[in-house]
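Class prep. Sample record?

___
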Amino acid sequence: MPRKIKTIVFDLDGTLVDTREDIANAVNAMLLHFGFEALTVEEVTDKVGQGITVLLQRVLPSSVSENLEAFHTFFYSYYAAHVADYSKPYDGVEETLAKLSHIKLAILTNKYREFGVQLLDSLRLTPYFVSVYGGGQPYPAKPAPEALLALLAEIGVDPADAMMVGDSPSDILTGQRAGTATCAVNYGYRSVTEMRNAGADIYLNTFSELLDYVI
């Protein structure tokens, strides 16, 4: 049954936009620069989701993962120059966002906020959103609920009137902890089985199916 929702908060990578290739290219440019072997796109994607620092810790050998400054600087610089080389919205995203214009839409990502804004600008998606929250702001990463609660407070919406949409169990747990409805997408970076076990209220096989659940 459709729900009366005043705000939908979306994860970005793996939910609205397929960013796998650009992230993998940045990781591999960094690895090769420092003398390590490149990884496949799938190997990098498995490690995405908790922000840049955790990503670097996961892709680098443990012997260097405690001193990440040089790696972080290289990755940041490279990715900033290539954030939208190959990234693209999933099928139906822009059309669906346009049909949700009566609802306040926002972004909550563990990606650095400036990268999120840059990506949205590059793909001409920025006008659809009233707010973008991300890494680098004074809140812990998802699944901690603080950033989501702060975002909702900023735009004046009670959590009970909001929905969190994402492609990882972390997104679903964030919404549950904040007291919002939750929606999992099955086409993102995590397996269908993993998402089914996350306990979301709603599951989508395509982004446009969201229109069946909100009014």
In short: Residues 7-18+87-212 form a domain with the Rossmann fold fold (CATH 3.40.50.1000).
